[in-house]
Write a structure and sequence with these properties.
- The structure holds 2 protein chains of 2 kinds.
- Chain A is of the alpha/beta class.
- In chain A, 29% of the residues lie in helices and 17% in strands.
- A 6-stranded mixed sheet of chain A has the order 8-7-9-6-10-13.
- In chain A, helix 2 runs antiparallel to helix 8.
- Chain A starts with 9 loop residues before the first helix and ends with a strand.
- By secondary structure, chain B is mainly alpha-helical.
- Chain B has a domain of 150 residues: Orthogonal Bundle (MetI-like fold).
- In chain B, helix 3 runs antiparallel to helix 4, helix 4 crosses helix 6 and helix 8 runs antiparallel to helix 10.
- The chains are: A alpha/beta, B mainly alpha.
- At the A-B interface, strand 8 and helix 5 of A face helix 2, helix 5 and helix 9 of B.
Chain lengths: 289, 262
């Protein structure tokens, strides 16, 4: 859902591919930094943590479905809660050794000591952001989607051009917002909200014609939150903006170990299982060009 | 002259100590990079500047409306005749309620609530309802400022005017109000400085004003410098107003000290 990138160099794409490959095979150190990746170096007892012996994970509040359920990250339900616990488990932490802390998105990239070991909050990995924080390898790649009311004149849009005259809305700082501005380039300035709740209100009260959110969120809203709304279409994935990663403080020594855990989850098929359990991404929705 | 030298030296020493303390702190390079990055400043400025125009427009529209509405409410509260009891009560309830409710809540209520009623012929433009909410909220404050001004006029003024044969209305219009308004110009300006900044709250409804534009840049790049840009723009608007308020206050003090009438 969150955070755009305008550009990504071919070099960086290549580097992240290599990084993934390196992690998947577990044969070589995963990054240029000093992050340890060998099994011993990543033993839970040797990690440098905010609270020794405890893995402190951050996310925003309210934590929205389908990424969290009942605004309770500790219940292990919802895609990101499940991913976080799976990563923690691979890193050698029991469920009891995981502590959650509230990290508003705007404060996740503040300079200074972090109060979390990593933050999981639908944060897109982009080059610009890497100047301020470190990211894990992606745990999810997500297309953007457009959601409208059945009664809207844009309900039958079949192309990006059809949406040009729509009054669109998105959450601040999201990939969705960048997508609206860069790709749809609507004739009326997009409205921007603190969270999806504001965008949803404006869609259902008629102030907006459509909102752009990530696809799983779009499904969730149309199925469970706004009666008479529909997902008009999804957009092609932009690899420089639509991958989500765990966020770490700049220079965190945990990145390599988390990457190793993610690589194990990917190769064991657990990550795919978690994704399938919590997110409906395979429903047929036309791709708007 | 000597005083001036001492004050200049003490100012310089103070600033140098502060600057050294801040720039030598261990986290300064990180803070400088995320809050005071010249490249980010240049990059984010144009968008924030454009968005700031929306703040200025909201402020320019809201201010006169607030002045008029606030005055009407203050006058309604001051009505003595029994037949005006409903107006008097309404004015009291208006100030109590809208001064007590957080401005942000009013903006959410007006901006998301009124369009949801789907009343034909009523605009659902969020900027309009956000501005209306600001007018409602600030009119309650400003009414109280006016009322304080009216109360500050000596009762003898009213009695004298009445004894000259002026009606109640004429007394208010020609004797009480001119003195009352002059007394409260500084606090009114103070409220308007506050209003300038509160226009940023309307962003919760979706419009992109300066602070939101800054937030968009910050969350795009994970760099807070854009907020500093927005702060600079707001300050450039409020400082002239603050200095003007100071000047008015000083003039008032001078005139009072001189014992002259105004």
């Amino acid at each position: 859902m969150l955070r755009p990138a305008r550009s990504v160099s071919a070099f960086a794409s290549l580097a992240s591919v290599l990084l993934l490959a390196a992690c998947a095979t577990e044969s070589t150190p995963s990054s240029a930094g000093s992050s340890p990746t060998s099994a011993d170096a990543c033993a839970a007892s040797t990690l440098r943590l905010v609270t020794p012996g405890t893995l402190t994970i951050g996310t925003d509040k309210p934590a929205y479905p389908p990424y969290f359920v009942d605004d309770t990250p500790t219940n292990g339900k919802g895609f990101e809660s499940a991913v976080a616990y799976a990563v923690a488990s691979r890193m050698g932490f029991t469920k009891d050794q995981v502590k959650w802390t509230v990290v508003p998105f705007d404060s996740s990239y503040a300079p200074g000591e972090k109060k979390f070991d990593f933050d999981i909050n639908q944060i897109s990995i982009t080059d610009k952001r890497k100047a301020a924080v470190d990211f894990s390898t992606p745990y999810f790649t997500v297309p953007q989607a457009v959601l409208t009311l059945n009664t809207s004149k844009f309900a039958n849009a079949t192309s990006i051009a059809d949406l040009k005259d729509a009054k669109l809305g998105a959450q601040v700082g999201t990939t969705s917002l960048a997508f609206i501005n860069n790709t749809i380039a609507p004739t009326q300035q997009a409205q921007v909200f603190n969270d999806t709740a504001g965008a949803k209100s404006s869609l259902s009260n008629g102030t907006l014609d459509a909102i752009v959110v990530d696809l799983p969120t779009a499904f969730y809203i149309s199925a469970a939150e706004i009666d008479g709304s529909k997902v008009v279409g999804q957009f092609a994935v932009d690899p420089s903006a639509d991958t989500w990663g765990l966020l770490f403080g700049k220079g965190s020594t945990l990145v390599g170990c988390a990457n190793q855990a993610l690589a194990q989850l990917a190769s064991s098929g657990d990550l795919a299982k978690i994704t399938a359990q919590w997110l409906s991404t395979d429903v047929k929705v036309p791709v708007l060009q | 002259m000597r005083n001036r030298t001492i004050s200049s030296v003490s100012m310089v020493v103070f600033l140098v100590v502060l600057a050294v303390a801040v720039t030598n702190s261990p986290g300064w390079p990180a803070v400088q990079k995320s809050f005071f990055d010249p490249t980010a400043f240049r990059e984010s400025f144009p968008d924030i500047w454009d968005a700031f125009w929306l703040n200025v427009r909201m402020f320019l529209v809201a201010e006169p409306l607030i002045l008029v509405l606030g005055l009407l409410i203050a006058l309604a509260r001051g009505l003595r005749a029994p037949m005006w009891a409903p107006l008097r009560v309404l004015a009291a309830v208006w100030t109590d309620v809208f001064r007590g409710v957080p401005t942000l809540l009013l903006i959410l209520l007006f901006g998301f609530g009124i369009p949801a009623l789907r009343i034909k012929g009523l605009t659902n433009e969020p900027v309009v309802w956000g501005t209306v909410a600001l007018v409602v909220s600030y009119s309650a404050y400003v009414a109280e400022v006016y009322r304080a001004g009216i109360d500050s006029v000596h009762p003898g003024q009213r009695a004298a005017a009445r004894s000259l044969g002026l009606s109640d209305g004429q007394t208010s219009r020609f004797v009480v109000l001119p003195q009352a308004v002059r007394n409260v110009v500084p606090p009114l300006l103070n409220d308007f400085i506050s209003l300038q900044k509160d226009t940023a709250l309307v962003s919760v409804l979706g419009p992109i004003e300066a602070l939101r534009a800054a937030q968009i840049y910050a969350s795009d790049t994970f760099n807070y410098t854009s907020y500093v840009v927005a702060a600079v723009l707001f300050i450039s608007l409020t400082i002239p107003m603050a200095r003007y308020t100071d000047w008015l206050l000083a003039r008032q003090r001078r005139r009072k000290a001189a014992g002259g009438s105004w």
